Amino acid sequence: MNLAQLAVLALLVLSLSLTLWAARRTRTRAEFYTAAGRIGAWQNGLALAGDYLSAAAFLGAAGLFMSQGYDSLIYAVGTLAGWPLLLLLFAEKLRERGHFTLGDILAERFAEPSVRVLSSVSSLLIVLFYLIVQLVGAGKLIGLLFGLSYLPAVLIVGLLAVLYVALGGMLATTWVQIVKACLMLACGLALAAGVWMKGGGDLAGLMARAETLHPAGSGVWLPSKAMANPWEVLSLGLGLVLGLLGLPHILMRFFTVPNARAARASVCWATGIIALFFTLNVLIGIGAIVFVSHNPHFLDAHGKLIGGGNMAALHLAQAIGGTAMRDVVAAVVFATIMAVVAGLTVAGASSLSHDLYAGLLRRGQASEAGELRASRWSVIALVLLAVLLSTWFQNQNIAVLMGLAFGMAASGPFPVLLLTLFWPGLTARGAVAGGLAGLFGATALIVAGPAVWVAVLGFSHPLFPLASPALCSVPLAFVTAWAVSRFAD
Amino acid sequence: MKSLLLLLLLPIAAFYGAIAFFPSVLAWPCGRLPLSIPLALGLIWLGFLVTLLYVRRANRREGQS
């Protein structure tokens, strides 16, 4: 058994022990969905960071910096800007209303079942797309790291997610995310410190070497050609900033703290951790250019990085600290995947069992035990569906699904939630029409855009020129909600 | 809250506007670095600063009431 397998085994023992501990404290609906609101501010802050910083952020950001340089920071700025906005607009208001799901917040204002159906369906779609991306990434990464084929790898991840969430509910999920956030931050610090020391503590020297080695030369510190279309840049920025404000698994975390003060403080913790991580990533990215991109140990016969761009951070770990450091980082990647999958699963299952089963099928009359049973079956059903779909999507471009999840989150739940909380003129029909226009608008524009219409379907020109739909789909949702509320009721 | 929203959104909008329409601005020198790097890192930490200011302000308001 190598060090990576030992480290993964140690993390599995730790996470399953936490799950068993949490299972003894998860007997009611409130405990399952929100850990009964007993999560502290710093704990929720770490869990929020753990929920948000997926393997794509950990591995993808370093790979993106290595290939496209400054573009990685453009993504980071948009991502960070969403967090204070989340605090200013939603965090306290969500906590003050103190429910289990987003559907509850909307149902508090609108009694019509259609509003809860919209909320539930949009949450489920976003969670499912996000979950498929995580599972496809997990299957490929675990295959590369541990030599497992795709299906067993995603089945193991799925089974672990079922165990964490079905047994330990939100409490186990939270602690898995806390452990993951701490490990990921420690890994980021170790990698950045390693790059600093290997570069002789000379940042200017490292940057000069990066300029020499990167194909763009000094252009590595400037936006790449991918940012050449101004409207694409604006649409990407808008989608990155607003997408966060519609992600169900992030919004749900504000129901887990005891009061508004803790909700505020938890966003502060999360923002600080994520900002630190993206700052460290600049040094990690420079290290990847200098120590990995031209190192023959990490390149195949065609001069391409072994395992693709996402392996840049792992190769860097090997370049800095040898196989031992690479194995430890690989184990942290595994923990990262597990934590994000668990967070998504608890959000999706809550939407299924609380909004659809208890809220609509049982019209709010479900017993405590019945709803708890339904939530555990929902976990199994959701993970099974995601595993099945991930096997179909394993050879597709999963970046499209990620774009779809973010585009939908920015265009569907975000406008509806914002208008529900801040605009007294919104009607139930307006909320449903706005949400549907945003969801379908974002989906249609992504399909008609270059990422699907040209890259997947093979047409020569896209029907819609932008890969990111937010610039059109977000205003479409707001205008539709306003127009239907104003003129149709 | 409005002043914090402006403090956050104006620089972010200006940043994306500059990338979209005036990318050459980002190449201006800022010490030994191009402006792009300190600008992006500054905006990343501006997000944290805004959350910190809001939390302090809201806690003080809550303490007074």
Model regions low in confidence, pLDDT < 50 over at least 5 residues of chain B: none
Task: Report the helical percentage of chain A.
Answer: over 70%
What structural class do helix, strand and pairing data of chain B support?
mainly alpha
Q: Please compute the radius of gyration of chain A using only Cα atoms.
A: 22 Å
Number of domains of chain B: 1
At the fold tier of CATH, the topology name of chain A is Sodium/glucose cotransporter
Please estimate the helix content of chain B: over 70%
Indicate the overall shape of chain A: globular
Based on helices, strands and strand pairing, what is the structural class of chain A? mainly alpha
Record field, number of beta strands of chain A: 0
Largest sheet of chain A: none
Reading the helices and strands of chain B in chain order gives HEEH
In the CATH hierarchy, the architecture of chain A is: Up-down Bundle
Instruction: Tell me the series of helices and strands of chain A, N- to C-terminal.
Output: HHHHHHHHHHHHHHHHHHH
Q: Which strand order do you get reading across the main beta sheet of chain B? A: 1-2
The number of domains of chain A is 1
Count of DSSP H/I helices of chain B: 2
Quote the distance from N terminus to C terminus of chain B: 17 Å
Beta-strand proportion of chain A? under 5%
Structure description:
- Chain B: InterPro entries: DUF485.
- Chain B: The chain crosses the membrane at residues 37-55.
- Chain B: Keywords: Membrane, Transmembrane, Transmembrane helix.
- The complex is a heterodimer of chains A (489) and B (65).
- With 489 residues, chain A is an all-alpha fold.
- Chain A has a single domain (3-396), classed as Up-down Bundle (Sodium/glucose cotransporter).
- Helix content of chain A is 77%, strand content 0%.
- Chain A contains 19 helices and no strands.
- Chain A has helices at 3-23, 29-34, 41-52, 55-68, 71-97, 102-109, 113-146, 150-198, 203-213, 230-243, 248-251, 260-291, 312-361, 368-393, 398-411, 413-422, 428-448, 450-454, 470-488.
- The longest helix of chain A has 50 residues, at 312-361.
- Chain A is globular.
- With 65 residues, chain B is mostly helical.
- Chain B has one domain (1-63).
- Chain B has two helices and two strands.
- Chain B has a two-stranded antiparallel ribbon.
- In chain B, strand 1 and strand 2 (33-34) form a beta hairpin.
- The longest helix of chain B has 29 residues, at 36-64.
- The radius of gyration of chain B is 15 Å and the shape is elongated.
- The A-B interface holds A 70, 73-74, 76-78, 80-81, 83-85, 87-88, 92, 204, 207, 218, 221-223, 227, 230-231, 233-234, 237, 241, 260-261, 264-265, 267-268, 271-272, 275, 278-279, 282 and B 1, 4-5, 8-9, 12, 15-17, 19-21, 23, 26-27, 32-34, 36-37, 40-41, 43-45, 47-48, 50-52, 54-55, 58-59, 62.
